Amino acid sequence: MKSIEQSLLLKDGRTLAYHTFEEKDDVLLQQRHQRPKHPVLYFHGFPGCGAEAGIFCARSVAKEGGAVYAIDRPGMGTMSSRYDIDTRRNSNGVCDPARANLETFVDGVWELVKHEGWEEFSVIGVSGGGPYAMAFLASYLQKTIQEPRHQLSEHRLRSVCLVGAICMTAGTHGMLIEQLVKWANKGTSSFLHRCLLGMWAASLGLIFNYFIRWLPLSWLVYLNSWSNKLLPVADRTWMERPTNISSFLEATQTMVAQGGYPGVYDDAKILLRQEKRNPNEEIVRRCYGSASRSNNVDMMGSLPTVGIFHGTEDANVPVSHSKYMHDFVFHQRSTFIEYQGLGHVSTIAERSDEYAAFVNSDVPK
User: How would you label 119-128 residue by residue, b for 16+ Cβ within 10 Å and e otherwise?
Assistant: First the structure.
């Protein structure tokens, strides 16, 4: 579907950029667009930007009566403002850039929700968007359940869908980007590893802005086939289709429109940070665990429904991440679906009808 870039000026002066989508030639979708649409916030993968939702799931969500709002993370895409880490400090006056930036992002998403006046909405977090979806869910739970005086019931988060998503406490074993994860974690205390991560991020901007865009499609097909040898068959099959390659590269070029640094660099420092205890996951764990143990009908009814979807052959984010979330974060109060033989991008792209149906399960068709 065609991506339409939009923006919202936030209270702190930064710009939140997001993508909406339309399909002019589809009469059925036009008819459904005339009805009230269920808003679905899409948190993109890593590295990526909101434009990728037009390739993966915007059409599936529209068929189910919803509308995707795919948010660019700071420094990604053409319009999103970069982070300003000096504005957020903890109670001790010490700035934790990664955590402060994540909180800043969540605050910006809440401004969009309130600006649009959504009474109900859902969230999809794919791949590297998983930690951002988890942070937003934790913020919602903290405001509505742990601190009911905030009373955000006029903005109800109905469901959360995690697709091939990273879990920050599930470890790095089996991840193709394990080396990047090490750089991101060592970068908190090592100038050398910060430089390595920064050079990698900057190189993405150079490659996709000044090199890839000038290569003929046949060369790109060959380079793509060569670079994806470690991926499962299902992912290679999807990536080797010329139409998918061209659409995916277009979205990637949009991602690095401002250069790979600092956008991709800041993103990596947030979501590749592996921790034994993650504060957002702890909030979610407590809320869903309490509901599970107490069997409190009112509390269970107030919790957003959660769907977790993952391919068994995923080489980017191993399925163990989703199993960990289902068992230990959501205490098996989530719907967990494994796809035998599918990988990372093949699950996100080819099972979009199923997770789109999940987030729109109560929407009139």
Answer: eebbbbbbbb
Chain segment 184-205, per-residue pLDDT in tens: 666 566 777 778 888 888 888 8
CB 74 within 8 A of CB 97: no
3-state secondary structure of 174: coil
Q: What is the pTM of this model?
A: 0.88
Burial class of residue 227, CB neighbours in 10 A (0-12, 13-18, 19+)? exposed
The pLDDT value given to residue 166: 93
Count Cβ neighbours within 10 Å for each residue of 133-152 and write b for 16 or more, e otherwise.
bbbbbbbbbbbbbeeeeeeb
Instruction: Taking each helix axis as running N to C, give the angle between helix 263-271 and helix 130-141, from 0 to 180 degrees, rounded to the nearest 10.
Output: 60
CB 1 within 8 A of CB 61: no
Cβ 292 vs Cβ 140: under 8 Å: no
Distance CA 227, CA 120 (A): 42
Is residue 298 predicted with pLDDT exceeding 50? no
CA dihedral 342, 41, 328, 287 (to 10 degrees): -160
Q: Which two tokens stand for residue 27?
A: 């009469």
